[in-house]
Amino acid sequence: MGTGKRTLTMAAIALVCAVTVLGAPVAAHASPSKPTPTPAPTPSGSPTPAADEELEEVRGKLEKLYHDAAVATDAYNAAEEDTQKQSGQIVELAREIVKGRAKLADLKDRAGAAARAQYRGGGLPPEARLWLSENPQAYLDGAGRVRQGEHATKGLLAEMTRTQEDLQQYARDASAQWKRLEANRKDKAAAKKKVKKQIAAAEQLESQLEKEEKERLAKLEAAAAAKAQTAWLDSGVLEDIKTKASEQGRKAVKFATEQIGKPYEWGAEGPKSYDCSGLTSQAWAAAGSGIPRTSQEQWRQLRHIDVKDMRPGDLVIYFDDASHVGMYVGDGAIVHAPRPGRTVTITGAGSMPILGVVRPDAG
Fold it and tell me: Which residues are known catalytic residues?
């Protein structure tokens, strides 16, 4: 009887194992002559969610696309700024040309009148006119005025020459500015095309993600930023930052933080939307200090400050190519306009690779 029970038990175990093997996917060492069974679709019919490694790869691709879009945005903003500047210079040169032509016409009229007066006083030699004069003193006085008139005429001719030379120079300058204007318009169009291409590629990539994947991707982005910020804080950097904001700095911070929640839009300078350098340049304009429009020019032209000397209102420049900027607000944080699809927000100053810090005000 014990032997019979053991036999039934072993048979039951064998049956369970057989069912398990038949229900499981074919092992990697299965015979190549037997096709691999297709896994049954999930009840919902939805695709299998991407693994964290795949989402991390997507995050890296998005980061690069948006970084390239930021670089192109800076190029667009620079070309736009130069275009406006050159347009203004061309208008000013045109005004100078109009004034110069009017001045030249007036000089020609005056020179013509002087020449006609000299012609009417011509004829006999001066000594003969002196002998025949009934009033020698009056003649001598008149002769002095004639010589003054001759000097004045020479002065008019010299001024006419200078005016003509000025007009020629204005025309050359206007032509050069026009060529630069056209070149900048082409640069601006090329940058605009690149910005749109990079953003469209990023949006297409994001559109392929399911809602749950987008939520996980956002968590991965937040985790990466938090990790970078923690590493920055762990360096002890905040222990050395004790400088208080200047009066202008407080005004700039107030303006920038009042824009929190407004959408990022490339090339925008407010009031409804901003890009990163549009926010910082407008904040400092509101504080009474005009600064360059782009993050790259802000880095190039403004005074560099050690991180330990950083104070609220200073600008933190990011990445090796200075393609992003935020404003330090204190306590290890910045306010910035991150990228398309995001809004103006506060984040850790160390959440991105810091290139350096610049100070717009000299105080």
Answer: 276, 324, 336
pLDDT band at residue 56, thresholds of 50, 70 and 90?
confident
Query: 328 - beta bridge partners?
Result: 334
Please state the φ and ψ torsions of residue 264, each to the nearest 5 degrees: -75, 135
Residues 361, 363: Cα–Cα separation, whole Å: 6
Strands 345-348 and 354-359, bridge-based pairing: unpaired
CA–CA dist 220, 226 (Å, integer): 10
pLDDT of residue 244: 84
Find the range with the poorest average confidence among 15-29, 200-214, 289-303: 15-29
- Cα–Cα distance between 300 and 295 in angstroms, integer? 9
How many helices and strands, by DSSP H and E, does the chain display?
9, 6
Q: What are phi and psi of 228, to 5 degrees?
A: -65, -40
DSSP H/E element including 318? strand 315-318
* Location of structure tokens 């919902």: 44
Distance from C-alpha of 333 to C-alpha of 118, rounded to nearest angstrom = 81
**Model confidence band, residue 318 (pLDDT cutoffs 50, 70, 90):** very high
pTM of the model: 0.62
9, pLDDT greater than 80: no
- d(CA 15, CA 169) in angstroms, rounded, equals 102
Q: For residues 215 and 269, give the distance between their C-alpha atoms in angstroms, rounded to a whole number.
A: 30
Contact between 263 and 308 under an 8 Å Cβ cutoff? The reply is: no
- The helix or strand, by DSSP H or E, that contains position 196, with its residue range, turns out to be helix 136-207
Q: Which are the contacts of 348, defined by CB distance < 8 A and separation ≥ 6? A: 225, 226, 228, 229, 232, 233, 332, 333, 334
